[in-house]
Amino acid sequence: TIEEELKPYRAKGMNIVRMSPLEEKIPQYAGSDALIRFPIDEEEFKDWQGDRLQVITVAQSFKQRGEHLGFSVFDRVTANFQRKVFGTENDDLGDINGGLVSYQHLKNELKENRVFFYFGTVPSPYTISIMEAMMTGVPVVAVGPKLRELNAYNWPNYEIPDIISNGVNGFWSDNIDELIGYIDLLMKDKERGQAIGDAGRRTAIELFGKEKIMKSWIEFLRKI
């Protein structure tokens, strides 16, 4: 519906900047004038340590928003690990609720915890939380596209399998037991986690680095 609403404005000269190549798969796609991803400052998010044997994620109203955020998947995958969820309106999560934290506190949590679990928000191809995690260097364990499927969004809308090369710069799977196994591996092998996290950070800098994105915006704005 939004794509249809954009078409007449684009016909009159409005420019459209996209954040993911998967947006062109949206039905009634209105076109694009540039692909510029969101930026993350590589000097703000860095220096992963991972000494706390805990898996974390970031989500708002996690349980209430259900399968748009994959709460049931998170719950099954992380049930046997120490875990925390950071974000607003998560009082119904009980002991695993980490609450709303400050910007500095969030950066520290990303540095200190061993694993970051990612589902994202359907139907966004990726969200800021995985960008911040990968830039920090915390190893990411993410769901695959089948676990993300909702019938309401019948187009490819999950870019993480294109961003994460499994076992190289992170892990992803559509199998619950495999996801549990990846977390268990990272909990037991910090050296492997360091290698995965370092590779994830290099990917994040390449895709989302602040300086690179700034140059893309300058180039785009000069053209118009």
Question: How would you describe this structure to a colleague?
Answer:
With 224 residues, this protein is an alpha/beta fold. 41% of the residues lie in helices and 14% in strands. It has helices spanning 2-11, 62-65, 71-78, 103-112, 128-136, 160-163, 176-188, 190-208, 210-223; strands spanning 17-18, 34-35, 52-58, 83-86, 97-99, 113-118, 140-143, 171-173. Strands 5-4-3-6-7-8 form a six-stranded parallel beta sheet, with helices on both faces. Helix 3 (71-78) crosses helix 7 (176-188) and helix 5 packs across helix 8 (190-208). The longest helix is centred in the C-terminal third of the chain and has 19 residues, at 190-208. It is globular, with a radius of gyration of 18 Å. The two termini are 27 Å apart. The model has no long low-confidence stretch (mean pLDDT 96).
